[in-house]
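Colleagues,

For the teaching module next term, I've prepared a clean inverse folding example: a structure given as tokens, and then the sequence designed for it. I'd like students to try predicting residues themselves before seeing the answer, so please don't circulate the second half yet.
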């Protein structure tokens, strides 16, 4: 029996996605999005993913709103997390009981990182990636560095030009000379559909964050005075977002329920002991909601929807790819 299982997911931004920082930077837009502090590449924090996944899973399981959110009780003492050993929401995502303690939950979410970023070119849209993004896929081993850090590497014969623009940046095209394409192609075949894989290009880590940050979507909004029907003075603001077509990658690590007890009782789903596949199954119930209700802010302004590529309706079923770590099932009870 395994101690935990790791499930890999990729998803396509159906709309632009805005997960804001609550602040701005001088010379940029008013409302910026979250970025990795080291690479400066935009990301979606795991806390944002975990929170919205919990809410949508609670809807799917008929546990909304009590077992969703932070679980505070109402003024009359009712509501809040049920904290039961057979609740699929409280066991998977955890619960709080104040001084009575709580449970951390069986599912852990990584940050959502940019794997492939869509950029307009004179040859049509391409999806840009770099070794720094591809190394997030821990099933890609020993990815070599690019020989030329100022070139675009691709494997598709559909691009005839010797030069290609990525937005404003014009770079030379190389169709051979990098040994990493085979492993990249095999890894992406598991995660993404063919129509995207055939238009993937690779650039250096040095250029990747410049290309991404130069091609984010920026929108402008204004407050309308309901009396005059005109824009209010000083109410204009701008906000940035990951553009539609961005491919994001993340991992969900599911701990073995057999290691844990809630109120002295083992965790069960339905009439049987829960497994790591059951834990992941609860997480997956939220995925259809992500495609329709979205993640992040500006959800009522055409933003936020995310299509997760897994399940029987997917081309490649990334949710079927998982890693296992074995160990003693008697360790770590709570």
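(Answer key — instructors only)
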């Amino acid at each position: 029996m395994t101690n935990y299982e790791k499930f890999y997911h990729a998803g396509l931004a159906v709309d632009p996605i805005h997960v804001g920082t609550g602040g701005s930077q001088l010379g940029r837009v008013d409302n910026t999005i979250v970025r990795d502090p080291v690479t400066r590449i935009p990301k979606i924090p795991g806390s944002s993913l975990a929170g919205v996944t919990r809410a949508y899973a609670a809807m799917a399981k008929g546990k909304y709103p009590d077992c969703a959110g932070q679980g505070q009780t109402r003024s009359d003492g009712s509501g809040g997390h049920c904290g039961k050993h057979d609740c699929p929401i409280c066991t998977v995502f955890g619960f709080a009981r104040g001084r009575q303690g709580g449970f951390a939950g069986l599912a852990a979410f990584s940050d959502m990182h940019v794997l492939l970023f869509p950029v307009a070119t004179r040859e049509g849209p391409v999806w840009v990636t770099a070794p720094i993004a591809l190394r997030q896929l821990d099933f890609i081993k020993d990815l070599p560095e690019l020989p030329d850090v100022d070139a675009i590497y691709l494997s598709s014969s559909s691009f005839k030009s010797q030069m290609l623009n990525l937005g404003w940046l014009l770079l030379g095209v190389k169709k051979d000379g990098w040994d990493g394409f085979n492993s990249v192609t095999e890894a992406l075949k598991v995660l993404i559909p063919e129509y995207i894989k055939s238009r993937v290009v690779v650039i250096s880590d040095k250029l990747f964050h410049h290309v991404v940050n130069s091609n984010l979507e920026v929108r402008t909004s204004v407050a309308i005075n309901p009396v005059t029907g005109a824009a209010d003075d000083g109410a204009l603001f701008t906000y940035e977002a990951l553009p539609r077509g961005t491919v994001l990658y993340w991992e969900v690590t599911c701990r073995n329920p057999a290691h844990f007890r809630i109120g002295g009782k083992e965790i069960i789903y339905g009439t049987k002991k829960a497994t790591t596949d059951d834990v992941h199954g609860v997480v997956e119930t939220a995925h259809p909601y992500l495609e329709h209700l979205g993640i992040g802010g500006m959800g009522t302004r055409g933003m936020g929807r995310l299509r997760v590529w897994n399940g029987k309706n997917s081309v490649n079923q990334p949710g079927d790819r998982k890693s296992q770590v074995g160990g003693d099932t008697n360790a770590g009870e709570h």
